[in-house]
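We close this part of the discussion by returning to an individual protein. The sequence in question and its structure tokens are set out directly beneath this paragraph:
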Amino acid sequence: MPVMVQAQNKELEKQLKKEYKQKLKQLKKEGWQIYGTSRSLEVSLLLHYQKLNDDGSQELLGTASNCVSMNVCRQMALQNACAYYASLAGSKLKGRIVSDLAANASGDLSAEFDKFYAAYERLVEKEIKGEIQASFSLLKKNANGSNELQTFFVINEDAATKARIRAWENAARESEVAQKYAKEVSDFIKEGFDTAGE
């Protein structure tokens, strides 16, 4: 292994340890406690980071606020993560279509594309739900007896791409404009994206 690569790996390892310690300190300071597992917060966070590093998974955070029932909290957190992912997917697609296709399109397609974006986001939200996996959850009790929940989810980019393609195929059936620009839009949807970087 070249010396430069070894130096970069050592620096990355050092920064990952630093990041882990800072995140752990922040979560404890904010009063979060591990929920739904017999593992400690320290181990759960380490395993979560390992999932992100090892298989190229992306992180999604789902939150729930002011809920009393933990079942409701968990469902809210899942729905929140799926909605966030769908919004990112829709925004990315819209940006690409506006920049790459709108200049070449004839006539006013904005209304038709808006219908397509809405259908696509709704379907991505539905499809992604079966692909994301909860990594760990954190719980904080409020003074009024309600709960705050943060669930850290992971999603593999291959699974996410397949979910976006299924959503695209279903949304395209509902949209003439999507069918007209099928090849270009399909190419955009197959592109991966970093949920943390948007």
Q: What stands out?
A: The mean pLDDT is 85. Helices lie at 3-29, 41-54, 70-101, 110-128, 157-173, 176-180, 182-190. Residues 70-101 form the longest helix (32 residues).
